[in-house]
Structure formats: C-alpha cells, structure tokens
Hints:
Layout (H helix, E strand, L loop, with lengths): L1 H16 L2 E7 L6 H5 L3 E5 L3 E7 L3 H4 L4 E6 L6 E6 L10 E7 L2 E6 L4 H5 L3 E5 L29 H9 L2 H12 L9 H16 L4 E5 L8 E6 L4 E12 L14 H17 L7 E8 L7 H13 L2 E8 L11 E7 L6 H14 L3 E7 L8 H5 L4 E5 L23 H19 L5 E8 L6 E5 L6 E5 L5 E9 L4 E9 L6 E5 L12 E8 L3 E9 L1
Parallel strand pairs: 11-12, 11-13, 13-16, 14-15
Antiparallel strand pairs: 1-3, 1-4, 2-3, 5-7, 5-8, 6-7, 9-10, 10-12, 14-16, 17-24, 18-19, 19-22, 20-21, 20-23, 23-24
Helix pairs in contact: 5-12, 6-8, 8-12, 10-12
Amino acid sequence: MEKKILLILLVxxxxxxxxxxxxxxxxxEDRLTPLAEQDLKILAELEQNAIVLIEDSDVEKIRPxxxxxxxxxxxxxxxxxxxxxxxAIDLTLYGDIxxxxxDDHLLKIHTGMLESLVKKKxxxxxxxxKPMIVQGGTTPSPLLRHAELPAVLYNxxxxxxxxxxxxxxxxxxxxxxxxxxxRYSTHDSCFAAAGYIFDKFxxxxxxxxxxxxxxxxxxxxxxxxxxxxxxxxxIYTIICGHFDAISYLAPAIAPGxxxxxxGTAAVIEAARVMSNYQFEHSIxxxxxxxxxxxxxxxxxYAQLARSQGDSIxxxxxxxxxxxxxxxxxxxxxxxxxxxPPCEPFADFFIAAADTYTTxxxxxxxxxxxxxxxxxxxxxxxxxxxxxxxxxxxxxxxYHTPGDTIGAGYNDHAFCTxxxxxxxxxxxxxAIPHETGIEVFEEVGSEPTxxxxxxxxxxxxxxxxxxxxxxxxxxxxxxxxxxxLVRNMSVQxxxxxxxxxxxxxxxxxxxxxxxxxxYFMQADDRTVQTIKLxxxx
Length: 536
C-alpha cells in the first residue's frame, strides 16, 4: 500500500514539473481504439506498445491504462525508432534506449550521433510529434473518400503498358544513379541526382514536375504529376521510392544500387511507359530523399497531404527490389493490419501481379514495419504497401560501398518483374481510359451507310457499311489539318449487303496515331463523312 501511494505521488510530481511527456502505453487486443477514444495523441504503434504524447491535462485520460513515462519535455527530432539488422550493434553508443519492443527500439539520440548511427546496418524512422490518424478517433480518416479499389480484370491497355517496360532502360537509370558515387542526402551529388530525376519526369511528359524541400540542407523530393481527366486535383495515386543512399563510407561513397536506385528506377520507368495513356485519377511519381536519416522526405509529404485534405487512393512503395538470395526470389508485400486496414490493397496488388506478370509474392501483415516511405502514409490514414526483396534484409552489401550492379544489385530480371507489377497495379488503380470513338455528326447522302464503333478495352475499331451498289468502296481517314493518314478499301459483291472492316488506329505506315479528331470518308459513288473523336 505504501509503495502504491509513493508511485502515485511520484507520477503526480513528474506531471507537475513539465508540460508534455512521452509515454509508453501497453496495448491490448483492442490496439489503438481505446486510446483514440480518449483523444490521446498517438505517435507510433509497435507490437506490444503505443508511444503517446500527453500534456498535463491528459493525466486522467491515461490513468486507466498500463503506462510508463519515458521522457519529459520531449523535443522534436530527438527520438527514433530503430531496427538493427546486425544484432551486434550496440545502440547505447548512439543514444538512450527508452523502450525495447520485440526487435524495435525507441532511441533518444545523443547529440551529433545520428550520422554515425545511420551508417550502420540499421533501419530507422524518426518519431514525429504529429499524431497518427486512427479510425474510430475524433479526427476522420481520409481513407478512400472518393473511390473503392477497382476489380482486377484483364485490361488490354494495362497489358500494353506492362509490355512496354524495358529492362535496358531500367538498368541504365540504375547505372546513372550509381554513377553519382554517393547520394547521401546532404551531399551535392544527391542534389544532382534529384535534378536527373526531375529531367526524366519532364522528358516523359508529366504535366507538372516540382522539387519539394523539407529539411534544411537536404536534397529535395522530386514529384512528377500526371493529371487525371476526371479527377485532376487532389484525388490521386502514388508510386514512390527513395533515391538517397547510405554506406559506412558516406557521405563520400554511397552507391545504393539496390537500396534504392532499384525502386527509383521503377518510378522513372512507370512515368515513361504511362506517358502516352490517360487515366481518370491523377498519378504522382515521387522520388523521396532523407529516407536513410529517418523518412524525412516522405514524412513531410504525407503530413502536408493530410493537412491539405488530399485523397490518396493508394501508395505503392518500392524499396530494395533487385537482390536475390535464392531462386526464384519472392517479393515481400508489407501491409498494415489496421489503422489503416491495408490488406485489401495488398490483395489488389498481388492480384495485379498475378494477372500481368510472373512475379512471386508473399503478403506480410504487420503493425511494426515502419522503416520505409510507406509508413508516414499509414500514420496519416492512407492505404500503402511496401515492396521489398527480403525482410529481414539478406543482402550482404546492405549499407555498404558494395551495393553496386552485379553485387548488391544482382537480379535485374527480378527488378524488372517487380517494376511491371507495380505499373500494372498503379494503372488499374488510376483507371485507364478505354479507347473509343464518339460520333458527332454525319453528312452526305441518305440513307446513312457508314457507322463506326470502338472495341472497348482494345485499340480496334469496327467500320460497318451497307453499300448501295456492288463494287469497291474506298475508305479515307484524315486528321484535322486535312492530311490523309490512312487508306483502306472493301469489295462489295451486291447492294444492301452489310460489310465490316477493322481499323487498329494506325496510319498507312503502321504508326499509331495520337488521340484527337479525325474524319472518315466512304466513297461508293457518293461521299459520306463521319466526324469522330479518338480517345487514347
């Protein structure tokens, strides 16, 4: 009894001495829901515990839970969740371990020791003071306000995009990023790499490309935007990967071929192969920086998106997708169990991979895989998955100067297949426009002999004619400038006989014509013209 009274007195004294406290709260089977119902500021969810930021006024709210005060007067940027890939690493050299939850550690970093820590074989995530969005809490989640996940059905245009993926183009982008020698986030070469990615997004026809700065002295995020035809503004999908790199010789040397030129090259390739297609929803191609220091770039982006009310339909994050320790390699697809519930999104991605590629996948449901650029989106209530070759990391060149093509990046075919799967899922999520024709007007002799209809889902058009007499019928297609782009002909054996001919949207040389307005004429003694719009 005396010990209990003493504990209450000690807790009361601590609460009286400071304004804010970092607190560990033990979770039960209801996970975050009871904390959200109390309107507590949840900063992170681990396997057994939640990390909560409370004020003096929250004392009564926290008392029903099993909790521990970890630190008083916490300062932004002092705390990191750390997962050592090498169990021999002594984290106490770099900070104070405030919490040990399974394999995850909450570390209060010693002044000046962050740079030394990130050069080790560790995964790291900065603890933000901005609270998580929790379903069932007082703040509504932005999750899927405008759309549900579409069904994964075979789509001819999606298959075309997948078939356009070029292994040589992917490898050339990985090589170029590796050739910077280092992409350490604060190094000039990382800024140069951001410029290279920026130029690629511009070259591949993104409607808007911009640099998003976050931490002082750090290279910016690079964002390419392809506007949707129906939802051009704040309803969009994301494919992303971080382009910064780390090694024990950083900042001078950090080639990062697998980690993560591979994921970045997948984003660039998506921008390339999707450039000539239109989608209902906007697409954002994002290369994040500052990932190796604790997800700085993605944390900034996700929190800003949430504050602006952006509706993000789903985030596909690729991080380390080019190393195989066994054959055939299987892609680990990480999704959060709840808050937000991402399993349907993982199933959607896996279904897309199964439909359009030969990629093998393994779904991993988790609450604790918070060490890549998907995690800040989880915290803001958005659907996201993380694609990674192995977890735990099996690549012996992880965070070393040996992470180069042929060593750390040793399976280009696997990287190509992952890229295809990500593009297929992204295209399905953004909803590609079906190719089609809309008839605006018809002029010429009566009765009308000429009709045109699209084949939904394919770039194939059926031209139907009912000739007034036997003999050849010439078909001519002109663009809006009057230039003849295609000649075709069909032979009629008798009048009144319905004839059909197929057109695949190409000109006389076999080159695919762009979307736009065209005029089709049929000449069987009288000229008939249809004005049509071809959608790509």
